[in-house]
Amino acid sequence: MVIRTVCHSQGVVRFVCAQAGCQDCQETLLRKNKGLIQSVIQTQGMGGIDYADLVQEGRIGLWLAIMHYDPARGYAFSTYAWTAIRYRLWRAHCYADRVEDEKNEAAEAG
Fold first, then answer.
1. Cα separations in angstroms, 100 against 21, 32, 87, 96
2. Residue 89 included in any domain
3. Residues ≥6 apart with Cβ < 8 Å to 100
């Protein structure tokens, strides 16, 4: 049996709590900021990659942003997360291009 407690931290403390491993805080922050993923996908125009894959990569980027956010640096979380999500999507796009290039080279050679 798993006993799950609800964490009542808010604001900056919620990030500290999430970074310490509180799953409730991590899930709350992911749910609260999931709209950033949609916004980045829409503005970046990542063609050639399945939408579900983009969303998954965006969630990974958002989770990484939550885990590494430092409010003492003076940036809003949304600014920091936007950059982290965009970077993760860019990496996925580059990887997809590389895989496609390797497939084309193999088809030409074979």
1. 38, 35, 20, 6
2. yes
3. 48
Asked if residue 27 belongs to a domain, the reply is: no
Q: How far is CA 91 from CA 6, 69, 84, 98, in A?
A: 35, 20, 11, 11
CATH number reported for the structural domain that contains residue 56 in this entry: 1.20.120.1810
- 26 part of a folded domain: no
pLDDT in tens, 17-26: 999 999 999 9
Q: How far is CA 90 from CA 52, 57, 83, 93, in A?
A: 15, 10, 10, 5
Q: Is residue 15 part of a domain?
A: no
Range of the domain at 38: 33-109
Residues 56-86: tens digit of each pLDDT? 999 999 999 999 999 899 999 999 999 999 9
| CA–CA dist 33, 81 (Å, integer) | 9
Mean pLDDT of the 5-22 span: 83
